[in-house]
Amino acid sequence: MEVFLDSLLKSRYAAEKKTILALCEKGNTFSLADLARELGTSIPKITRIVGELEQAGVLSDWGKQESAAGRRPSLYGLNPGAGVFVGVEVGQKEIALAVTDFTGRIIQFQDGIAYTLTGTEESVLGLCACVKKQLRKYHLDPAPVRGVGVNLTGRVNYRTGYSYSYYISEEKPIRDILEEGFGWPVFIENDSRGMAFGEYMSGIAGDARTVLFLNVGWGLGMGMVLDGKLFAGKSGFSGEIGHFPLLDNHQICRCGKVGCLETGASGQALHRLIGEQLAKGHPSILSAAYAGGREITLNDILDAVEKEDVTAIECVEQVGSTLGRAVAGLINLFNPDVVVIGGRLCVTEQYLMPPLLGAVNRLSLNLVSNDTVIKVSRLGNKAGAVGASLLAKHRLLNR
Hints:
This protein is an alpha/beta fold. The chain has helices spanning about 15-25, 30-40, 45-55, 120-135, 175-180, 190-200, 265-280, 285-290, 300-305, 310-335, 350-365, 365-370, 385-395; strands at about 60-65, 75-80, 85-90, 95-100, 105-115, 145-150, 155, 160-165, 185-190, 210-215, 220-225, 230, 340, 375.
């Protein structure tokens, strides 16, 4: 498979070219003088390097820099027409799809695409076919697809290409099957880390260097950007905050352990708490459905919260308070610039965040927490697919 940029980044000045592309990755633009200072080299040398990147089509002249006096220098940045990247977020029964251009601008986004991925080669190839069918509707030609990012739940080792939630065989990692089906370079990642990278690159994190992203969905996961780098751990299994043994609630977690944070601060926990309240006869707009034996889904609960159902709101507040205890500990441990709350439960922001912030104020060290901003995801339901797309570009540029 021919990989975009391989020959360019193996030619002369390869290190300098990688540095320039990394500097421009967030959509920044630089003059030749700026780049010469950043790389500690001469303007004639930078001029040659930028010229080669322009000729290859990956950099372009963005116009003249505003200047109070004197000759205005040209600014250079990534060429938006150099290609597109595709991001796929795989859920339980559906996928979300994002397409971004070479600068990271979102061109297309679609969620709710029906597909259930299983741990078979046929199902993985079916996912590829489903995504490519959707891409054909976007009429992306002539912009070539340069890479695909795929976010998967659970333990993912992006270096080896294995997902242990969708394990095929020892001989064939899921990444290789995806590359076979797509025909493009594929980069897999854990969903929470993909979301974290999306917020870091284009969301609410701004210029922060240390960002913790809490993915509060059916489960609870965390993605970490530490000193500007996405942190995966030795085997790619970092961020399992949901299985931190924090609670003394005697609840058995889906991992088989007792007292995991996820049993008190997740969509799964919210679902259990609502069930307990309905079983006690607490009034709710969900009561009739519960009494009739109909399954109450997480979407039902979130709809009830939106309709200001008191029982549902009280359960969300309980989840928020428990999550706040964990956030306080994370702030004390990491001293981050920003903590971002994302995932499906962030739609309950007005009820989730006050008890969360209250717990943080009570339990975190003031000197540490004063330096941390806690925000709700700006990308929202786009965070996973957009993050996967941006991460595909990042890993291709740093291949």
